[in-house]
Design brief:
Layout (H helix, E strand, L loop, with lengths): L2 H17 L5 H8 L4 H8 L1 H19 L3 H18 L6 H32 L4 H25 L7 H17 L17 H5 L10 H29 L11 H4 L1 H48 L6 H29 L5 H31 L9 H22 L16
Helix pairs in contact: 1-6, 1-7, 1-8, 2-10, 3-6, 3-14, 4-6, 4-14, 5-6, 5-8, 6-14, 7-12, 10-12, 10-14, 10-15, 12-13, 12-15, 13-14
Length: 419
């Protein structure tokens, strides 16, 4: 079977699992369970907590001890079992621990899927900068398909979203064992130092000012990503409390409106090779930061009626905000590190984005919303919330160009490395 098709199927299922519940779990917690923003913030932070250590640990494991595709399959099978049990939980504290366990199994698969894909493409003589983005598009399509499936079947506040995710996770876990072999490479390195023996070589990247700054801003942008994931669907759902809006299509099917963000991703993913070669990683990341400012600002002033165009435009801008940082970042890490630490380096990137970034973004945003933007009747000042988030993204965008001193060599138009 064609290697690209096999990786396309892997990416489709990988993000279908996440799309089935990531953007709608807020509605499940708020309107089904009636939990507070602080409780939901803690629950959503499980993504960050698990990503602080699991991608790095799994990266070390596949660099030294186990084939990446095998660990990838095991993680999805275990995750499927946990997802199936989530609807049985009624207590928020227990729910936190069960979701955390699910995230412990799922978060490493994000970096593992990249490791497997890059390894398979390189073994097949492909250029990851050119060939990976069209494959990764199908992950976004899988996310969209899951959102539409959950929304059109009216399962946005239902436990069925977790059963759907569980079934696909089990299928992917089994399928993973048929993927191209991605064996450990680090043991083949002659260096027998303690750092090498423990598989911690990738952490030496922090000694480089280029990577230290890159990882720091990856964490800050990771926080921005979690803000929109956590509150976007709930924000549109809340218009249902306004009589003038409650019967509008956007309010009835908010997940479908939010899926425009993923449709936009498919366009910007294809643009990544051009922008990376033309501008380099520094300006591509800066474009991402400015896109986050627009994303939040448009949400602040949009509504499902006359302001629907702003909600739609915000979702379109999301494609640049997400892709130009997340996918370009993984390509930067891949092309700027050696194959022996491929898994660990991708794990570090995920740790900063979906680990520390997601954790601090989820916890702090939940506390800030409860303290400053929630009224006595528990309604939320969404205009203030989104403007606060836009200000955060703007500050990051202003600082970044002055501290990330990385010069892009525009003369290397045909070079595979992002130098």
């Amino acid at each position: 079977m064609n290697i690209k098709f096999r990786l396309i199927l892997m990416n489709f299922m990988q993000f279908f699992i996440w799309g089935a519940w990531l953007l709608t779990i807020g509605e499940y917690c708020y309107h089904n369970k009636h939990w507070s923003s602080a409780q939901f913030g803690a629950i959503f932070s499980t993504m960050g907590i698990s990503a602080i250590f699991m991608p790095a640990i799994s990266g070390i494991m596949v660099d030294k001890w186990i084939n990446a595709e095998k660990l990838y399959g095991i993680m999805h099978i275990l995750g499927a079992l946990v997802l199936f049990s989530i609807p049985l939980i009624t207590n928020p504290t227990t729910f936190f621990w069960v979701i955390l366990l699910n995230m412990v199994f799922y978060m490493p698969t994000l970096s593992l899927s990249i490791t497997v894909a890059y390894s398979a493409l390189k073994s097949d003589g492909k250029d990851v900068v050119i060939d990976y983005p069209p494959i990764r598009i199908w992950g976004t399509i899988g996310f969209i398909a899951a959102l539409w499936a959950v929304s059109l079947t009216h399962n946005e506040t239902s436990a069925n979203q977790f059963y759907i995710a569980s079934a696909v996770a089990l299928a992917l876990g089994i399928y993973a064992f048929s993927l191209p072999k991605c064996p450990p490479l680090l043991n083949k390195v002659a260096n027998k130092s303690i750092i090498n023996m423990l598989g911690l070589n990738a952490f030496a990247l922090f000694k480089s000012s280029k990577f230290a700054v890159f990882f720091a801003f990856s964490m800050l942008l990771g926080a921005a990503l979690q803000l929109t994931n956590a509150y976007g669907d709930t924000f549109i759902h809340d218009f249902n409390n306004v009589p003038a809006y409650k019967d509008l299509i956007a309010v009835k099917y908010p997940a479908i409106i939010m899926s425009i963000s993923q449709v936009s991703e498919t366009v910007f993913i294809l643009a990544i090779p051009f922008f990376l070669r033309k501008f380099g990683i520094k300006y591509v990341m800066l474009f991402s930061m400015l896109a986050w400012v627009l994303r939040f600002a448009l949400f602040a002033f949009g509504d499902p009626a006359g302001g629907l165009w702003m909600l739609v435009l915000s979702c379109i801008v999301y494609g640049m905000a997400f892709d130009f940082f997340n996918i370009s970042g993984s390509l930067f890490v891949e092309t700027e590190t050696t194959p022996e630490i491929r898994g660990s380096a991708q794990g570090l990137f995920m740790m900063m984005v979906n680990g520390f970034g997601a954790f601090f973004g989820s916890i702090l945003s939940g506390l800030i919303i409860d303290k400053f933007f929630t009224t006595a009747d528990h309604s939320k000042n969404w205009n203030g919330i989104w403007l606060c988030f836009a200000g955060y993204a703007l500050i990051i965008a202003i600082i970044f160009p002055f501290v990330f001193r990385y010069k892009h060599n525009v003369a290397l138009k045909h070079a595979p490395a992002l130098t």
